[in-house]
Design brief:
The protein is α/β, with parallel strands linked by helices. It has helices at 8-17, 39-42, 44-60, 78-86, 89-94, 170-179, 205-216, 266-269, 279-285, 296-300, 302-319, and strands spanning 6-7, 67-72, 95-100, 114-116, 125-132, 142-145, 151-156, 162-167, 200-202, 218-227, 242-245, 248-250, 259-261, 275-278, 328-334. The strands form three sheets. It has a seven-stranded mixed β-sheet with strand order 4-3-2-5-10-15-14. Strands 1, 6, 7, 8 and 9 form a five-stranded antiparallel β-sheet that branches. Helix 3 packs across helix 4. The termini are far apart. Residues 184-192 have low confidence and may be disordered.
C-alpha cells in the first residue's frame, strides 16, 4: 500500500481487493467469517430460507432445465453450500450454482459450484441472483462539509489520516442532491442550503451502478440484495464508514488490515419494479418464525422440544428488528413471473 492521498473509493479498492495483498484477496485468509458474522453464518435457517425462495422462483419460471443461483460476494461459498444441502433433490439436480467472488476458490468446495471473479454476462441467467452483504463492500467516496457548508471529497492515506479535497461536482454532486441532502440539525431534505460544517456522507452512485449490472445478468428471475441500509429521510449525519477485524468494529484504515464497509442507500439502488422490506418481514414470509414451541411438546417429545427451541432462538436472532432483522432486502424481478413472491411490502 502506498501512503499517497486519494479518495476513499480508490483507497478502499486497493485495501480490500489489491492483487495478492488485499483484505479479501490475500491468499490463505479466513474470509469474511473470520472477521464478522453475517446472517449466513448465524444459522442454517438463513440458507434454508434462500432455498425456499429459490423454489418459489423455480415454480414461477416453470421449472427450467437450467435453473441458476448466483451468489454475489460469496465469501467462501457458505451460502451456496447451505442452499444445496436444503434443496429438494429434483431442484438440486437442475441447479447451476455460481459464486461470484474476487478471492480465490476455497479448497474443498462442492465441485458443482462454478467459481468466478466477475458477474455472468448480461441476459445469461435464469433464476435467482442473491447478494448478501455485497453492496456494503462496493467502495464509495466520502464527502464532508467544510466550514462554509460546502461538500468536499475526503482524501485519505493508507494510515487513515484524512484531509478535505476539492468540492464535489458532476454526477456525484447530482447523486448527493437527490439521495443524501447534507443539512444541519434544523434543516430538512428540502433545505440543501442549511448544511453545517462537519457533516459526512457516502456517495452511493457506484453501488447503484453495480446493482444495475447485477440485475442485468438476469434473462428472467429475481435479484435480491440484503444489506445494512438507510433511507433518504433518515441518512446518518456523520455517515457510516467503519472497519471490522477479528469480530470487532475498528477504525477504517485502508492499509489492507481490516474490512472497510458503509451502509447502503438501497432506496437509491432500487429500480422501478423493486420491492423493499426488512429482513424480519422477508424471512417471516419464507417461513422463519422465532416463536417458542408449545410447552406441551416438552412432555410428549423432549428431544423434539429442545430442537424446536434451538431453532426458535436462531430464528429470533435472524429476525430481531434491532439486529439482523433490521437489514434491508431489495427485490428486483426481471420479467413478470417473479413479482410479489414474498407478498406485499411489510415493514414489520
Amino acid at each position: 500500500m502506498t501512503n499517497e492521498w486519494c479518495g476513499w473509493r480508490e483507497a478502499t479498492e486497493r485495501a480490500l481487493y489489491g492483487p495478492g495483498d488485499g483484505f479479501y484477496t490475500r491468499p490463505g485468509g479466513p474470509g469474511p467469517a473470520g472477521h464478522f458474522r453475517t446472517s449466513v453464518h448465524a444459522s442454517p435457517l438463513y440458507a434454508e430460507a434462500v432455498a425456499t425462495l429459490l423454489c418459489r422462483v423455480d415454480t414461477a419460471l416453470g421449472r427450467p432445465d437450467g435453473l441458476a443461483l448466483v451468489d454475489v460476494g460469496a465469501g467462501r461459498g457458505e451460502l451456496l453450500t447451505g442452499v444445496l444441502a436444503a434443496l429438494p433433490g429434483e431442484v438440486a439436480a437442475r441447479l447451476r450454482p455460481c459464486a461470484v467472488e474476487r478471492a480465490a476458490r476455497p479448497p474443498g468446495l462442492d465441485p458443482r459450484i462454478d467459481w468466478r471473479g466477475e458477474l455472468p454476462a448480461p441476459g445469461s441467467v435464469t433464476g435467482l441472483l442473491f447478494a448478501n452483504e455485497w453492496l456494503d463492500n462496493v467502495p464509495v467516496d466520502v464527502v464532508e462539509t467544510d466550514a462554509d457548508g460546502v461538500p468536499r471529497r475526503v482524501l485519505v492515506r493508507a494510515d487513515g489520516t484524512e484531509r478535505l479535497g476539492d468540492p464535489v461536482d458532476g454526477a456525484d454532486a447530482q447523486w448527493l442532491g437527490r439521495w443524501w441532502a447534507l443539512v444541519g440539525a434544523g434543516g430538512g431534505v428540502d433545505a440543501p442550503d442549511a448544511a453545517s460544517p462537519g457533516l459526512r456522507a457516502e456517495i452511493g452512485r457506484p453501488r447503484d451502478e453495480a446493482w444495475a449490472r447485477a440485475v442485468r445478468t438476469l434473462r428472467a428471475g429475481l435479484a435480491v440484495a440484503v444489506d445494512y441500509a438507510h433511507e433518504r429521510a433518515g441518512r446518518p449525519p456523520l455517515g457510516t464508514l467503519t472497519g471490522f477485524r477479528d469480530g470487532r468494529e475498528v477504525a477504517p484504515v485502508p492499509d489492507g488490515s481490516c474490512d472497510i464497509t458503509a451502509h447502503v442507500a438501497l432506496d437509491a439502488c432500487a429500480g422501478p419494479s423493486a420491492q423493499r422490506l426488512t429482513q424480519r418481514a422477508a424471512l417471516r414470509a419464507l417461513g422463519v418464525d422465532g416463536r417458542r414451541p408449545p410447552l406441551a411438546l416438552a412432555a410428549t417429545d423432549p428431544a423434539g422440544y429442545v430442537r424446536a427451541l434451538s431453532a426458535a432462538g436462531a430464528a429470533a436472532e435472524l429476525t430481531d428488528p434491532a439486529g439482523l432483522g433490521g437489514f434491508g432486502w431489495l427485490l428486483e424481478p426481471v420479467g413478470g413471473a417473479c413479482a410479489g413472491l414474498l407478498g406485499p411490502p411489510d415493514a414489520a
